[in-house]
Amino acid sequence: MAVKIKSIDIHAFRGIPELYLPIEGKNLLIRGENGTGKSSIVEAFEFFFTGSISHLEGTRGISTSRHGPHIKYDASDVKVSIAFDPGNICLTRTFETHPKPPILLSNYLNSARSGTFILKRSQILEFIASQPADRFRALASIIGVEPLDEIELEMMRVRDELEGEVRVKSESVQRLLVALSSDLQSEIQAVDEVIPALNRILETANLPLIVSFNDVEAHAQKMLKVVKGASSVELISTLNLGLQQIRETIISDQFIPRMKSLSKKVEPLLQEKARVKLRLSELLDNSRQIIKEEELDTCPVCGQNIDRESVLAIINQRMETLQALSERASNIRKESVPLIAELNEAKRRISGLVDLLSKVDGLEIVSLSELTLSKILNEGPALIKKASDLQEPILLGEIQEQITLLEGLWVAVGKEIKGALDKIGLTEEEKKLLDVVRLIGNAKEKATLVSEANSELQRLKLNLQRAEEIYNSFSGSKKQKVAQIYEEIQADIQHYYSILHPDESHTDIELKLSTGQRASTELRMRSFGREAEDPRGLTSEGHLDSLGLCIFMAFVRSFNQECSLIILDDVVTTIDSRHRSRICDLLYGEFNNYQLVITTHDGIWYQELQTAQRTYRLDSKFLNLEINGWEIDTGPKIDNYLPRIDNINNKLRVNDKTGAANDSRQYLEWILKQIILGMNAPIPIGNWLGGTVKDLEPHAKKRLLSLVDDNDYIKMVIEAFDQLERTVPFGNLLSHDNILAEQVSIVEVETFFKSVDAVHLVVSCQECGAVLKYFRDTKEYRCPNTRCSNPSLMRTN
Amino acid sequence: MNIQEEILSSFFNMLSELEGFPDSILKRLVELWKEGNLASKSHIREAISRETQDGS
Prior knowledge:
The complex is a heterodimer.
Chain A: E1 4-13, E2 16-22, E3 27-32, H1 38-50, H2 64-67, E4 79-85, E5 89-93, H3 103-112, E6 118-120, H4 121-128, H5 132-143, H6 146-184, H7 194-204, H8 216-224, H9 233-246, H10 255-269, H11 272-293, H12 308-357, H13 366-372, H14 375-388, H15 396-424, H16 428-500, E7 506-513, E8 521-527, E9 530-533, H17 535-538, H18 541-559, E10 565-569, H19 577-590, E11 595-600, H20 603-615, E12 622-631, E13 635-640, H21 644-653, H22 657-678, H23 685-690, H24 693-707, H25 711-735, H26 746-762, E14 773-775, E15 780-782, E16 793-795
Parallel strand pairs in A: 3-11, 3-12, 6-10, 10-11
Antiparallel strand pairs in A: 1-2, 1-4, 4-5, 7-8, 8-9, 12-13, 14-15, 15-16
Helix pairs in contact in A: 4-5, 4-18, 6-16, 7-16, 8-16, 9-12, 9-15, 9-16, 10-12, 10-15, 11-12, 12-13, 12-14, 13-15, 16-18, 19-20, 21-22, 21-26, 22-24, 22-25, 22-26, 24-25, 25-26
Chain B: H1 3-17, H2 23-35, H3 41-54
Helix pairs in contact in B: 2-3
């Protein structure tokens, strides 16, 4: 037995102080003007099942917890209880507690938790008029693959990050090879080309060759012994090593441009608004982790009970909106890392140089002592860290000044070391020899760096390959399944659309994953003979709305199988009356095993939905309600719906002449329109738009008399219309502020009403009461209700 | 099996049939899914780096 809602009890929620609706497992139809609280009822359903109101989330300053409670109540007063059948089980949702369903209801409530059983007017646009990515998101939430989207996104980010790291490492290897090529004056493309290139230089200088980099130390010692004999070898070696180190700049050319780029990114995020948002994002992220990992059922901040899944869903939703900002902050942190590393590396090199030169007794390098006190090296890393944590701006001018000072001192140290070497009194030949020794040392250092970088590059490339395999497999599996779902569901969408728009040139409705884009869905249809057109280009707003409705209904039927509830909140405002009656066919014919909640502000649509209930013999399965006002202290004023005829009879009983006449006239206009539409009666557009009795009546009558080939029926039609024409003036007098109105008696108004009702009876099926229609293909004038057990039928001319 | 599970199952199958794809990474990804940590960049990177760390 399908689970059905028996009643809903709403307390202190939105525009409702107190409301109890005994639905008794029926469908619910509610009419109310805008602002009378019908959406509050829908939101109460949403809050009960999901714990939030979707349109109150994700916007700063608006939230369910703040705007959910009735203006005169606190959040702690809010309570929505729903009783279910079978079992007469009553569950309650408040801001502190969530419904804990017994096994019998758990599938129903789990299925409803995502809130995908509700269609609002604004959501129709997500299916039709939105971007492919938004459309995918809307459909993914119904299919239930939305959580996988976050996984796919993270996998893609890992792949992209690794791609970036491989690129940076490759560039670094390339830079080192270019530097080696320049030093060795030979095209170097791999490390094993370094020693042959070095040996060519040594050979030219008539110096001993090296076999491997392991020989470099011994080789250097051997060559240095040639210089000034063995006595000065240690001093010369140390000074030469010092010079070798000085040869490389202390700070790269890229440092200042990168600092500028970082500064540009830091600046906007230091604004107060951005800082608050970022802190909120961090707070949400931490909360998410704590609630998830610790499986908390109470809020870690305020200690109130929470529905963990709902809270996590809200946090995820809020974090999505803050995602872009938090990614920018994360990128800043990433960019700052190599800059801090470069300053620390410079400091390490200076410290190494100090250690090296301190081995030489009596050697004093003044600039080196100043270098160790460099402000940029000692304070720079902390300053960059603070900027990357968005605590302080980057003082670019000062940093540039400090770097210039640092570079100047570095060059000065080189000059002082060179001066110390010169004091030894080296010959030009000996100086050239030292140059060669330095060249070999330098080449060894760079070759080692290339080897290390290459090995890291191989590791990164392997990681990237795996990341690509993971992302492609995941994305492929998801696409394949979603495409399969789309394929299966297209037939349903087309079927529903054909019910709403039979004989129209819109076919082959197709939902397709966009090629080359992650998580995007294209919507196409064959329209007026053109293949695969975007429906937005060729159909009216009403068509688009009805297509959105069909997509929603098809997905809900496939994916909300455990939850038989469907809520349509004021969704057919742009659809004309002819197509609206077909929406009744769709809802009542195809979804009669669901529990429908339909709200509308439109009185005519409400009447049509109510009339169709009789056609489909669903009168007893509907609770029809009209909201006739709203007040802050009492909420929506709901009257049980009275069928139009009962309503008029009531007014006649209390002597309400104007009310009864007005309603009777509207009743007549409605009948005449049904006749004209149902019989395809030709009518000038001006008359149709005018829509008054005078505009419509002659055309309806003429069509009936000319079309139906049944003398008895013709006689009945003539009698009904003659009586109508005699009584219409009574209705008109009373409904147009006529000064003669007072002269019309209540009996005369009643006569008018009865004549209208008689016309209605003549054009209705005697069995089920549906208004008869003309079917051109079979040339029949008959009951259109396919479920009618004894449909009225007449021949036509 | 719900849609999410179907997709995950197809994903893990696809990886297991991929020539040369290390078991250690696959096992870790399955664990991450069960723990609810598959939507995490750092966890995915940690799984991937297993191959180059332990040489499996």
